[in-house]
């Protein structure tokens, strides 16, 4: 088996994922993923696709992540891993799709409008 690559995106984060056979080592930007994602919730998010498809500990994953915040990066990595697993084994797609791991989350930050402090917030109204 050669290296399988895929792409995951969430908000402004882009994760390029390279999957190959190994012993479950996950490396993100040349660091262990537990160092890069310090909280347990983000570590769970990263491993979610592997757990659902029963592939935990079977593959080494190297990821290059750029842009966005830490949560968006974790979710982009999750999508990239799920897509790589489906490239490797198409039978795992229904289980991943049922958990919502194959869908790219389209929600983005709403732009700021002129004459307002933020996207939806308005300046305080003064009657007099």
Distance between the termini: 74 Å
Reported CATH architecture? 2-Layer Sandwich
Strand order of the largest sheet: 1-2-5-3-4
Ranges where pLDDT stays below 50 over 5 or more residues in a row are: none
pLDDT averaged over residues: 92
- The proportion of residues forming helix, as a percent range, comes to 25-40%
Largest sheet: 5 strands, mixed
Count of individual beta strands: 5
SS-based class: alpha+beta
How are helices and strands ordered from N to C?
EEEEHHEHH
Number of helices: 4
Structurally, how many domains make up the residues?
1
Brief sketch in words of this structure:
With 128 residues, the chain is an alpha+beta fold. It is built from four helices and five strands, in the order ββββααβαα. The chain has a five-stranded mixed beta sheet.
Keywords for this structure?
single chain, 128 residues, alpha+beta, Ribosomal Protein S5, domain 2, five-stranded mixed sheet, 5 strands
Structure description:
This protein is an alpha+beta fold. The protein has one domain (4-98): 2-Layer Sandwich (Ribosomal Protein S5, domain 2), CATH 3.30.230.10. Helices cover 33% and strands 23% of the residues. It has four helices and five strands; from the N terminus they run E-E-E-E-H-H-E-H-H. It has a five-stranded mixed sheet with strand order 1-2-5-3-4. Strand 3 (26-28) and strand 4 (31-32) form a beta hairpin. The chain starts with a strand and ends in a 30-residue tail after the last helix. 28% of the residues are buried.
In terms of topology, how is this protein built?
Blueprint (H helix, E strand, L loop, with lengths): L3 E7 L2 E9 L4 E3 L2 E2 H4 L3 H13 L6 E8 L3 H19 L4 H6 L30
Parallel strand pairs: 3-5
Antiparallel strand pairs: 1-2, 2-5, 3-4
Helix pairs in contact: 2-3
């Amino acid at each position: 088996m050669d290296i399988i690559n895929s792409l995951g995106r969430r908000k402004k984060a882009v994760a390029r994922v390279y999957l190959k056979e190994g012993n479950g080592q996950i490396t993100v930007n040349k660091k262990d993923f537990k160092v890069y994602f310090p909280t347990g919730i983000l570590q769970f998010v990263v491993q979610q696709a592997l757990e659902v498809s029963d592939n935990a500990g079977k593959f080494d994953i190297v990821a290059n992540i750029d842009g966005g915040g830490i949560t968006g990066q974790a979710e982009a990595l999750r999508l990239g891993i799920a897509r790589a697993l489906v490239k490797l084994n198409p039978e795992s797609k229904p289980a991943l799709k049922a958990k919502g791991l194959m869908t790219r989350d389209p929600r983005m930050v709403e732009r700021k409008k002129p004459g307002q402090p933020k996207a939806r917030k308005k300046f305080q109204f003064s009657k007099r």
